[in-house]
Every structure is written in structure tokens, then in C-alpha cells.
Q: What sequence folds into this?
């Protein structure tokens, strides 16, 4: 999804990709990291997964284009927060929880290297031409050997276009040679209406984890 479209959807409330309550796959497959480990969550939206990771003892940093999404996360979770500005980003920092959301262009985001990555909604939101740059920038933000948990979708892209986009195993393996596909679930109940109308009858959610974890 392009920047303008992403912002427009948040402004109009067209956020059908948002998972109320967070991801069951995260809760099942998160490998666990040392308390205080810094976890990067790209294109985080207002995901409840941020709070779940913080509750596991992680220091969580989400990156998001839309400030509407960031404020919605804190308001819906009833978490007080403070706002600041730096290097073209708006930062929203929780009070009482180790959660920060930086709002701006992900490709301009810089920080100290992170211990872990959780990507549920970033790679699948990007069209093919933006994915290589996303992967490279994400690599640059991680420590060597960082834990990486990635959730992707697989479906017949010839029938429907994203977002969310279908990202097949050979593409993932080309980007991250250290990741392995540890689980897959056919999810027919949550097929978006526009996909059903286009004739998509099956979507597979795949779970990828790096061997270091």
C-alpha cells in the first residue's frame, strides 16, 4: 500500500485488516526473548499485539505512518501517553508501559539496533516493488542474530489484488535465508469481502521464524 492510500484509509476508517484482539499466531509462536529486549513492529497500526509484547517484558517500538492509528491504540487501550517530535517523526510514548510508536515514513526511521522483529502487517501491505527496500531497511535496524517472527498471507493473487498482498514462500526465502516456515493455517472465515467477490476461496496464513530463535 502506498503512503497516500494508507493515510487515507485511516482517515476514513477503512481499516479492515486490523485484527481486533491481536494475533493468535503471535501468542502461539512467539519464541520469547530476554526481559527488556527491544522489539521492532513495522507498520503497527493500532495493533493489540504491541501491548501483548510489552506484557511479556519486551521494550516495544512500533513504526506507523498514521498518527490517527497511534492515538487510537493508546486511547482504546486506555494507556496515557506523551507526545514529542524528533527528526521528522512524531513519537508517542506510553506511561507505565514499555511501548513507543514512531509516526513517519518507515524508510526514514532510524534507531539503535533491535533484538527482535515482529512483522504481521508490514510485508503483506507493500506492493512487490517496495518489498526489497523494506527488507533491506529492516535488516539494517536489527542486531545480528535477532529473533524474527513473520506472518504472511498466501492466496491466488491472479484473482484479487492486495493489500493485503499474497507473499509466497519462494519470495520469503529469497529475502531471508534464515527464516523457516514453521506453520500454516487455512483461514476461510476471515477472507475479506472484496476477495470473496473476486473468487478467492482460500487464504493461508503462514508463520515464519528464524533458526536463531
A:
Amino acid at each position: 500500500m502506498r503512503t497516500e492510500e494508507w493515510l487515507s484509509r485511516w482517515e476514513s476508517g477503512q481499516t479492515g485488516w486490523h485484527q481486533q484482539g491481536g494475533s493468535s499466531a503471535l501468542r502461539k509462536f512467539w519464541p520469547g526473548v530476554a526481559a527488556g529486549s527491544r522489539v521492532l513492529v513495522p507498520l503497527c497500526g493500532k495493533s493489540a499485539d504491541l501491548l501483548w509484547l510489552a506484557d511479556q517484558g519486551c521494550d516495544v517500538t512500533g513504526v506507523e505512518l498514521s498518527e490517527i492509528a497511534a492515538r487510537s491504540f493508546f486511547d482504546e487501550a486506555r494507556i496515557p501517553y506523551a507526545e514529542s517530535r524528533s527528526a521528522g517523526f512524531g513519537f508517542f510514548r506510553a506511561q507505565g508501559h514499555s511501548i513507543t510508536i514512531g509516526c513517519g515514513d518507515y524508510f526514514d526511521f532510524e534507531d539503535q539496533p533491535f533484538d527482535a522483529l515482529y512483522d504481521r502487517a508490514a510485508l503483506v501491505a507493500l506492493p512487490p516493488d517496495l518489498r526489497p527496500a523494506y527488507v533491506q531497511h529492516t535488516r539494517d535496524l536489527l542486531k545480528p542474530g535477532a529473533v524474527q517472527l513473520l506472518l504472511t498471507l498466501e492466496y491466488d493473487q491472479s484473482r484479487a489484488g492486495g493489500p493485503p498482498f499474497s507473499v509466497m514462500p519462494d519470495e520469503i526465502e529469497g529475502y531471508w535465508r534464515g527464516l523457516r516456515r514453521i506453520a500454516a493455517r487455512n483461514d476461510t472465515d476471515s477472507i475479506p469481502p472484496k476477495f470473496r467477490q473476486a473468487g478467492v476461496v482460500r487464504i493461508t496464513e503462514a508463520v515464519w521464524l528464524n533458526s536463531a530463535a
